[in-house]
Amino acid sequence: MPKAEHPAFGIEHSAFGIDKIRRVLAVETLGLTRRFGPFTAVDNVALAVPAGSFYGFLGPNGAGKSTTIKCLTGLLRPSSGRMAILGLDPVVDPVGVKRKVGVVPEDLALFERLSAAETLDFIGQVHALDPAVVRERTDELLALVDLTEAADSLVADYSHGMRKKLSLAAALLPGPRLLFLDEPFEGIDAIASRQIKDLLNSFVKRGGTIFLTSHILEIVERLCDHIGVIAKGRLVAQGPIGELGHGAGRTLEEIFLELVGGGEMKPTLDWI
Amino acid sequence: MNADLVRYFRALTWLRWRMLMRTLTRGRGRDIVERFSLAAQTLVPIVAIVLMVPAGLAIGAVGFLAGYWAGQPSGATLATIVQVILMGACGFTLFAPLVFPAGSEAAGQVRLLLLPIPRGVLYIVQTLGVLVDPWLGVLLPLFVTVPLGFALSGRSLGALVTLVAGIGMLAFIVGLAMVSASLLQLLLRNRRRGEQAMVAAMLGFMLLSMLPSLLMPDLDDRRQRRRSERTERVQDDSSDGDRRVRHLVSLVGLAVPPGQFAAAARAAAAGRPVAAAGWTTAILAAAAALHAIGWRVYRRLIETPASSGARRIRDRGAPARRRLPGLSDGASAVAWAFARLCFRTPRGKIVMFSVVLTLPLLSVLMMRAGELPFLFATLRPGLSLGIFGLGITLLSLGPLSLNQFASDGAGLTLQTLAPISDRDLLVGKAAGGALVLAGPAVVVLGISIALSPSAPFGLWLALAFGAVGTYAVLAPINSVLSAIFPRKVNLSSIGRDSNPHQAANFLGFAAMLVAAAPAALAAAAGLMFFKSEWVAALLVAVWAAVAIGISSVALRLVERLVATRRENLLFVAQGR
Prior knowledge:
With 272 residues, chain A is of the alpha/beta class. Chain A has helices spanning 11-14, 18-24, 65-72, 94-100, 116-126, 131-144, 160-172, 190-205, 217-223, 252-260; strands spanning 25-36, 39-45, 48-50, 54-58, 80-85, 101-104, 178-182, 209-213, 226-231, 234-240.
């Protein structure tokens, strides 16, 4: 992947050699495209997510955020383009990539008929973790997300927020180096939200990388150090949040609306 | 108010119609395999709807002739047929919500509650909406043609009575539909309670359906005895007894509206207007009472449409996790997840219960049948029971194994995100199926051996090996059918919502017969050429080993298919 071909590399990154870039990027894509029939959901996206960063992936509804995450996590096969997740190609070595990443997907990916404890045990078993380690981590994670009392209830009986917390616990259990989180704070109460934010920050401080999508710009503003903005399937901006003009008298909302063109819309519903 | 009522009625009728049409137009497939799968799935409802037209015409014709010939000897049988049709309609109305679950309608109830429609009006328009359900359309001609038959035979009183009684009967059936659907939805608001009721109802139906078969031969014997006694004595006590029983049955029949409808028609035909009016009033009163109950239940439902009950909190223990012999961690995890899905859903529970419940019936039937010819051998009752029982056991897994990917729902995404290879996924599913089947299969074999303890042990071994070989062949076939014909299912339902794709069902049944044939032929060869049950067992064991080898190779081919179908499977599992 020659440096000149990669439009996503900023000035900071381009100072490195190609090998070094590969080492420092947790996620990189080139020309990532996904079509559904005639509709192009993700169009020639070139992502560069530095290792150890908290990367916020923003975009309006239907912009292609979830499709991009699905391509990166192996749930969808890209129509064209290349990807590298922690240096591995998820198309060539999907199992290898899955061993290193944790995912909270859009549909939360939980078995309705397993309990929280069994779900985490399932994850532990497929990652070939020692049962004692799984037990210990399960206790800690369930306590963290406040699901200890409901640990043996079936997921079918959980509220949306409980499911979300369990999905996050399942993503964290194997100790991944990279987390993909699709709207992780949606439906989570304020207390759990605070706990999860602290947890994610500490994950990043310890060298982990987080790739997060969220509609809540305040959360992204507070947590993320890098952002990427996608609109109509195309990546319209990417880089450290400060370099995109944030902090220089401009909020992330203003930057976002400017990038996706939403600021031009004016309500015309006079009859309301 | 009237204009509002008409508007709401039109809107809800349109809604019902659109829902019906949506079952016929299931969207465009994402590829040619999915388009084929969807087309095959659409075929059955289309055929069902097309068949409703001749059924409606036939029922209308029966009603017309029953009215036209009422009071004549030839009309008596037709009147009985009308009564049976009405009884059948009431029975269907009462139990249909169990088979065609209304659980998904709970969300619709919430949406309706958010609309500016008064609750009383909502009940009325929902009630009227039942009238446009297609199955009721089959019945409607009856209520028109019976009075028409009376009118054309020149009996205007009969026409009037049957018209009013027919309206009452229709109101009764609609009320019954509202009560049963609302009661079921009330029950299903609590998942656990609803599922327990579903399983109990299904098992109850199964037990009831077995009763005639269990009792029939005794009844036949009794009838035979009575016939011979009648030839000896023209009059005896038992015919008095028969008359008493018949009288009792007719009294019970008259207590319910279908019998009252027939009684009203008979009274009108006989020129007894007071009796006819009395029966008609009874029908109208029953309908009114039912709607009073229906309104109460419906109001209770819409006041709290989405209660799910409290979660059950238990003491925590470590989840039972065992790595299955010869399987990787990933495959073992998939196998346990599959087995848990089966043990914890009503449809899955029925897989096991149905086999165990069917055994007593099969045992009795096999004992009555005595020794049965099977290829080149004669089977003792226990062996016959073993063959049929194991066959039923393998078939019973169909709802899960023939839709093994989509039935996981969002769990399929979890498995896809986990570091599990496609091979581990397939092997895990096959092993999970074997785990589920092991219990019922052992019970079947145990009861079979108890039934014919003196049967040669070699044949029992052959039977067990045959089951293993058959399942080994079936496992990859079921995976293929699940990958080609996935269907979003609700395993909390015991009806069609939990059924696999019809094409998968049909082909899965055919595949089971084909898969079982080599084991049967191997056993027959051992018995015919070597005259030894031990050789038969050995040959079947060799076949089982070969079948496991074939299955292992076949699973490698299926891996590729699953890899190409993965996206579609995920979409279908998510209901997209």
